[in-house]
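LAB NOTEBOOK - FOLDING QUEUE
OPERATOR: T.R.
BATCH SIZE: 2
PURPOSE: Compare the predicted structure-token outputs for two unrelated chains run back to back under identical settings.
PRIORITY: normal
REVIEWER: second-year student, initials M.K.

ITEM 1
FIELD SEQUENCE / FIELD STRUCTURE:
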Amino acid sequence: MNERFSRAHLTFNFCNICGHIPKTRNDEPNRAPLRYWDPDDGWIVGSLCRACADEALDRQPKEGDFATEDMHDERTDEDPGEAL
């Protein structure tokens, strides 16, 4: 069991990864706030169920993740400063 998951607050919000919502007293509550790495979106703070926490909490950025790619495309004439 992940120690960060155990220390986080109980929540009945949906799991940010799978969408699980605890609906009964026998259904284990999700935990939040938990910071985890998403390969597409980067670092996220949200609610996680136990199964998703087991997978996501130890994940770290790695080469090839979309979130680590340089988003500036030099083949365009658009000014990246105007996008902000």
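ITEM 2
FIELD SEQUENCE / FIELD STRUCTURE:
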Amino acid sequence: MTKTNRRGFLCAAALAGLPAAPLQTSAQTADATQPARDVTRTLARYLVAARAGDLPAKVRKEAARTLLNWVGCAVGGSRHETLDIAIAALAPFSGRAEATVLGRPQKLDIFQAALLNGISSHIFDFDDTHLKTIIHPAGPVASAILALAEHQPVTGEEFLHALVLGAEVECRIGNAVYPEHYDVGWHITGTVGPFGAAAAAGKILKLSEQQMVWALGLAATQPVGLREMFGTMTKSFHPGRAAQNGLTAALLASKNFTSSNQGIEAARGWANVLSTSRKYSEITSDLGRTFEIAGNTYKPFPCGIVIHPAIDGALQLRKAHQLTAAKIERIDLKVHRLVLELTGKKDPRTGLESKFSVYHAVAAAIARGTVGEKEFGDAAAKDPELVALRGRVTAEVTPAVAEDQVHVFITLKDGRLLEKQIDHAIGSAKNPMTDAQLEAKFATLTEGVLPPRRVRRLIDLCWNIATLPKASDLARAAAG
């Protein structure tokens, strides 16, 4: 049958009320290990049947680390002008004030709180990272379910389990389409985030299998996030809206609001529309036996993670040779292609833009000996010393360099050449931050927002989340 005749047959069948076999695409048969028609339902079936008691101890511990990092980032970002603007714009339209905006005195409705906490947690680009896909799992999921926990009773154990499941769904779907989906221009945290938030909220709402299928379908139709927005306030909007969209999806599904049963894998479903390649077995294989959150990582520097190896290398060379900006003739970097794709801003003009400048980050590491939030502020972006030094930094894409590697060469004015290769930067899966380092990061982020005694209590609540009778205690302790 020719393409023209096939199209005519489909139209005639539809007019006659007859069923017609769907068009088969190469995408539907791209992953022979998993029939495309089963993906969404297989995932929903797993989510509904999953039990908290089956989580391995290692997974529970990493989930607590993920939560600790997220709360610190959300509280830390709560006083940024991005959140000031968002609250000023949206608070007048809030419904019942029952959910906390972390680090702030305001309570808003659960949809607004989910949005704002998601924004706040991503403002500094300091949140957790699933290195295989560059997804930031906690923002969409934790923001949605903490708001829900202030609306209805949710135990800490239920909260922890939902967080794990939400992260699992996000990262598995991300695994199926990365890197092609990301390369097209989607911000993957915003596009997979609604799935994670819907799955986690749906688990708390005790959705049936069919309702969970619908929730995932509703999430599929609400992707958000373009990479074009990196370096602006809109980047942090992506995980916030993802949280809000996923929460909406779960609540609609709980009342039997229907969607496609194949929202992820249908010929015109999420995976085929948003990516040029897909591997469905990444979503469905070994469900309940492997957990993506077990490999979650946490940033020691508040900027795009692809810059971290360069910062680490520059800091190590500075310490080893007592370097200052005045001693340096030039700095040359050999990097992975994503470094320049994501952080190639040569002359950032604002703090948010500087988070996406490998040139600025390396200059700050050498000139200041530390790379914290102040080094990515508006004042630092305009600092004459940093501006001059970053002008002497070059970066060259080198095929042999992996995403988590860098080769740093520093030529000094006295003619010496220093070099450092970083294979696994601090904060990576093979060189992870310790619990003590995460606590120190949390304390630094929350300094000036919450009193020290409350900071310590909040840290303890995160570590012991599974023992809490009410997960909402976490939100109350984090209120400004």
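REVIEWER COMMENT (ITEM 2): The beta strands are 99-100, 107-108, 328-335, 393-397, 406-412, 417-422.
FOLLOW-UP: none requested
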